[in-house]
Amino acid sequence: MPEAMAAPKALTGGKNKGGAYVDRDKPAQIRFSNISAAKAVADAIRTSLGPKGMDKMLVELSKAQDIEAGDGTTSVVVIAGALLDSCSKLLQRGIHPTIISESFQKAVEKGVEVLTAMSRPVQLSDRETLLNSATTSLCSKVVSQYSSLLAPMSVDAVMRVIDPATATSVDLQDIKIIKKLGGTIDDCELVDGLVLTQRVANTGVTRVEKAKIGLIQFCLSPPKTDMDNQIVVSDYAQMDRVLREERAYILNLVKQIKKAGCNVLLIQKSILRDALSDLALHFLNKMKIMVVKEIEREDIEFICKTIGTKPIAHIDHFTPEMLGTAELAEEVSLDGSGKLVKITGCTSPGKTVSIVVRGSNKLVIEEAERSIHDALCVIRCLVKKRALIAGGGAPEIELAVRLAEYSRTLAGMEAYCVRAYGDALEVVPSTLAENAGLNPISTVTELRNRHAQGDKMAGINVRKGGISNILDELVVQPLLVSISALTLATETVRSILKIDDVVNTR
Known about the structure:
The protein has helices at residues 2-12, 26-46, 60-68, 73-92, 97-118, 127-139, 147-161, 236-259, 278-286, 300-307, 362-384, 394-407, 412-424, 427-435, 440-452, 479-498; strands at residues 13-15, 21-23, 120-121, 175-181, 189-191, 193-196, 207-216, 264-268, 290-295, 311-312, 324-333, 339-346, 353-359, 387-390, 458-461, 466-469, 476-478. The chain contains 16 helices and 17 strands. The protein is an alpha/beta fold and 506 residues long. The chain folds into 3 domains: 27-122 and 389-498, GROEL, domain 1 (Orthogonal Bundle), CATH 1.10.560; 123-186 and 359-385, TCP-1-like chaperonin intermediate domain (GROEL, domain 2, 2-Layer Sandwich), CATH 3.30.260; 193-226 and 234-348, GroEL, CATH 3.50.7. Residues 1-13 and 52-58 have low confidence and may be disordered.
């Protein structure tokens, strides 16, 4: 009798030797709940794919894509969502998660081969191709109508900070984007030199030719005692003596700065006391030294690299060899919307450039900055992996067709899973068609037919609302963007498949 009673208990769950409760249905439930949560995010993002999509919402996966490639952040989430949908169906048919995971790994390896085969090599000297890639990236942005201005700016910025012959990557820290409210996006400009948003402190000197620039990290103001002491002055003679000492101390500092030949002085922001006293400013003005104060600590490295100066921590180290040189340092007015300090014509420049982004409000400026960043990342991708691939859903359909062929060479469950992986990728062209107001089913069917006949470059032409050779339309993207999106989406899906339990934390 006890044996008969124990049988049903073993079917649904029971206690193991350690006394912990074991539920056989739980791993499957956890998997499905994880998949449905991730699918919900992907579905929410689907409407933002392509130039006709709504604006973007990013998640952790798209952050990874952003770090690796800088573009394709929406695509990667949409692909992950479609793959999770496939996983859900495969799991419901009783296929083991490990088999699905391993099959997906095989599929992505084959997919990378297919993408590499359909890509076209590109030379960094081919400016037109680089411009097309940057323009395609800007198409789906709010500021897309300014792509004819922003695309060349992005290409020029990257080309100035690298050596095209030897570069294998681009350090985007060398391209400083300065946001300045006022004007329109048409007023954005690329400056070969340094741009500071801080105002010139002494308005008497706003333009210096043949500038010798010093960057100091100490204060030009009277020193304070180490402890909170109070000095009690009993008569005017003592007070006069204190002021004379103060004056002599500051005059000595300013004389040493002048002696080194400095005529433009940048002062780092101080949190302890005022970095520049009125008296020091008065002396600097007399000696015709242009002063820019409140330089942020995080900008120091970029400033030093741009103008070839070194930060000076103490007046004793203020020597001519610590100074940077430039043809011109001047404060320029921006049509009534504030001023900027520009230092141009640096004689020993590190390879850096500055991009001044203008806009009528904060939202526009931030959107323009993000769009320029994406365009810069696209060019960086081409420097990392010098190959281009068609856009407009062409790579995904090509993958779907080739993976279906590949699945026929496999046996058993693997073939089934690889086929499902390929079919899932059709979500990208399907969503592009949907967001462009086309019929997704007939569009994808025609695309599949064209690719099966060997037309690898057939893609969805969003502008004309149909299917055409997407390379002729100059809709291209770096190969790295597509490969990165595919591998990261697959890695994420495989990670979610491995989760079969949740530990509740308090």
